[in-house]
Amino acid sequence: MASYKFNSSKKTHRSIPVAKPNPKDYKNILFFAIIIVLLIIIAVTVLVLNPGQKKNDIIINFPQVNFTNETMAIGCDDSCWMKKGLEQHSAYACDQIINDAEAQLCFEQISKYSVEACLQVLNAAKKKECIISNAISGNSIDLCNNLLSVSEQKECFAKVDLCYSKPSGVGRNTCYAISTGNYSLCLGNEDCLLDFVQATNNSAPCASFQLTSQRSACMALAEGVDWCDGLQYNSERGQCFSTYAIWTNKSYLCDEIAYDTSYALECYQSFAVSERSKEYCLYLDFNNRWSCYENYSIGTKDISGCTTINLYADVSRTRCFVDYAMQVRDPGACAYLNDSAKRFNCYYQSVMMETNAPIPPENCENVTVATWKDKCYLVSATSNNVAATCSYISDSSIFNTCLAKFVSK
């Protein structure tokens, strides 16, 4: 039997080369796959949110790129920028103009529309005009600070804020209350409330007054109707008429008050001072009349009120001169007192007693006693901090004391 012998060696096969994948191909495939997935998601979302819409109607809006005027203005010359500045009120466009004169013209043309352009204006008059205009239209008082002149700044402040020129405090609060129609800005101040009522004829603030007489006077002020005559008590009636007369500047209403009351005194002396006419005091009884003359003199700084007091009303006459000398800071009034003791007391109180106001040096001229005259100048010099006033002192000792007070400073 024939035997067969097999070859055990391995048969060698020719290897077939395999192409390696390019990484860019993977990236491209991945990118398109993501795009397809996103489109499918968008399509499904549209179908879910708009079920009535047909598949063929699906519209995919891709974001659009918006180019600003600046990006589109490549190669824009001065005339081009000028046109853009004027049409768009753009300070940026004006600033791109190379010619300085043309740039200024551009800024000036749009300055009342653009704060940025206004601040670039070099012409002082036009800059002031546009700053004030922009400050008013924008209700921005801070913009006024861009004006260099203090007087121009104040002018600008006053035009932006109509109450700026009013004195701070009650005066300005009153202005704001009236201009806004909000009396709570008066912060409870009675004068402010009354001015508000008178300006607006609004009686609501009248409830803020505690006294019945004041509330009634306030209602009369608001409505132009007499609310005083019907009050139950004479005191309330008298105070109401006095208050209403003063508030409305109607002196004839003082005649409605009993002439021997404090309300009549309050009413008549108010008009005596405001109209500088001491004849109003004649409508009062004697005791009130002397007080009226004194208040007239102090209120108007006219000594004739004190000199009008009857010589037999010695207490009232003396008190009038002393109070006048002290409050008006005029020791010369003491010379009207014939009694030396009263005159000394008057000088002492008016010269040596400290008050809120210093003595004007000219008020020392009419002091008749030499020693008190020198002391008057001494006090005047130190309280006014004017060393030159010392030169009016005749006594060498008091003169040296006066100078020493300034040397030590």
Salient structural properties:
single chain, 409 residues, mainly alpha, 19 helices, 55% helix, flat, disordered N terminus
Topology readout:
Blueprint: H1 23-49, H2 69-72, H3 78-88, H4 91-95, H5 100-110, H6 115-120, H7 124-137, H8 150-160, H9 170-180, H10 190-200, H11 212-223, H12 234-248, H13 262-274, H14 286-300, H15 304-308, H16 314-327, H17 340-352, H18 370-384, H19 396-407
Helix pairs in contact: 3-5, 7-8, 9-10, 11-12, 12-13, 13-14, 14-16, 16-17, 17-18, 18-19
Describe the fold and architecture.
- This protein has 409 residues and is mainly alpha-helical.
- The chain has a domain at 76-160.
- 55% of the residues lie in helices and 0% in strands.
- It contains 19 helices and no strands.
- The chain has helices at residues 23-49, 69-72, 78-88, 91-95, 100-110, 115-120, 124-137, 150-160, 170-180, 190-200, 212-223, 234-248, 262-274, 286-300, 304-308, 314-327, 340-352, 370-384, 396-407.
- The longest helix has 27 residues, at 23-49.
- It is flat and about 120 Å long.
Low-confidence stretches: 1-21, 46-72
Alpha plus pi helix count: 19
Strand % is under 5%
Q: What share of residues is helical?
A: 55-70%
Structural class comes to: mainly alpha
Major sheet: none
Strands, count = 0
Mean residue pLDDT = 85
Q: N-to-C terminal Cα separation, in Å? A: 152 Å
Radius of gyration: 46 Å
Series of H and E elements: HHHHHHHHHHHHHHHHHHH
Shape: flat
